[in-house]
Design goal:
Blueprint: H1 2-14, H2 18-35, H3 40-45, H4 47-75, H5 82-92, H6 97-104, H7 111-139, H8 147-173, H9 179-200, H10 204-221, H11 223-229, H12 234-257, H13 267-292, H14 303-312, H15 318-325, H16 333-382
């Protein structure tokens, strides 16, 4: 009987619409909550590295991952063409803001470095989703395959809608002195913006982030008034609680859904290789972006130190899994199973292995940086 109950439970979990739950349900609120805690002064200070990491690194790592995976597919006769492999790269390359903020805030990173990692994670989801749509359109022969136009539409349209509606609703918020209405207006803002953007074909992911940052910036500007109206910080506590609850539920669901996945017959080949390719493609993407922003690398890190930190702190999460589940409509069963297996292993590896060891990596890099700077100072004195 317990075995039958477990089989029934896993069968029902397999029918759960995880993609719809995340993409059309809770993602916008999770992103708003994360973005509303962004330190705007640090964001402006590190704008160049954040933009390059969020856009260029995601683009490079997605395509490089796909090319390397295609080489493995040819070598071992996997049923995947080059565009399917690149699509898989678009699924696993974006870092997850929920996983990043949930783990990195607890390991003692400097505010400057933490700001770069968190903001990159918040913005590169939009890049990843846009890349995913572009490559998917090639695979299913859709007309929406002009990448430049698609990227412009997704990003610029999302920012415009988010700023306009957020500005209007924040004007309404300033008229009230009820902290509960602060919460309701912020909920209305992110919900309305996300639905409008998704309806118009803009990036609801980026729009949610922009909404959160706009409200964070605007609330800081009227901080004195907010303290009087909301002395117990109901507004801040509400979004903190929402973020923690949804984040916890998300990872529990990822674990439960793992009970229903089918292990691909190619798993012994693709699982170990996919981890190596993931780390390599991310490192190369960060390296190229870092070269372009070398003079603006935060935290006095060297190029090598910064690449190691940004590579190892790149955690993956629910968005990758939602994108992977969304491929079931147009990929055959063997390829779909490869996508799901690789995505699950990627999430578990980055969260459990990288997430639990990133503190050690960070402090090892801090020690290396201190020793390097000490040598440079001694050399300077010697001259």
């Amino acid at each position: 009987m317990p075995v039958d109950a477990l089989i029934l439970f896993t069968d029902r979990m397999g029918k759960f619409g995880f993609e719809e739950y995340l993409m059309d349900g809770v993602l916008c609120f999770m992103l708003f909550a994360g973005a509303s805690k962004v330190n705007m002064s640090k964001f402006r200070q590190n704008l160049k590295p954040i933009c390059l990491l969020a856009l260029l690194t995601t683009l490079i790592s997605s395509f490089l991952y796909g090319i390397l995976f295609y080489a493995i597919a040819v070598l071992f006769s996997l049923p995947m063409d080059i565009w399917m492999c690149i699509l898989l790269g678009c699924v696993v390359s974006p870092t997850d803001p929920i996983a990043a903020t949930g783990i990195l805030n607890k390991i003692g990173l400097s505010k400057n470095v933490c700001s770069v990692i968190e903001n990159e994670s918040l913005f590169n989801d939009g890049t990843g989703v846009t890349l995913f749509i572009f490559v998917r359109s090639i695979i299913i022969h859709s007309k929406d395959n002009n990448f430049a136009l698609l990227m412009f539409k997704e990003i610029v349209g999302a920012i415009a809608v988010a700023l306009i509606i957020s500005w209007i609703l924040f004007r309404l918020l300033k008229l009230t002195r009820d902290p509960v209405k602060y919460i309701l207006i912020s909920l209305l803002d992110v919900s309305a913006v996300y639905m409008i953007c998704e309806h118009l074909g803009f990036s609801g992911v980026i729009a949610s982030v922009v909404c959160g940052m706009f409200f964070s910036y605007s609330m800081n500007k009227i901080e004195r008034s907010v303290i009087v109206v909301d002395p117990h910080n109901y507004y801040g506590d509400f979004w903190e609680i929402i973020e923690n609850i949804l984040n916890s539920v998300l990872f529990v669901m990822i674990g439960l859904l793992a009970l229903d996945i089918n292990i691909s017959r190619y798993a012994p080949i693709v699982i170990p290789v996919s981890i190596m390719i993931l780390i390599l493609s991310r490192a190369i993407g960060v390296f190229i972006s870092s070269i372009l922003t070398k003079n603006d690398i935060p935290g006095n890190y060297s190029l090598k130190e910064f690449v190691i930190l940004m590579t190892w702190s790149a955690l993956k999460g629910g968005l990758s899994l939602a994108l992977a589940f969304g491929t079931a409509e147009y990929l055959d069963n063997d390829v779909y199973n490869i996508f799901i297996n690789v995505t699950y292993v990627t999430i578990f590896f980055t969260v459990l292995v990288q997430g639990l060891t990133v503190r050690r990596v960070y402090f090892a890099l801090e020690k290396h940086k201190a020793d390097r700077l000490k040598i440079l100072r001694e050399q300077g004195k010697g001259r």
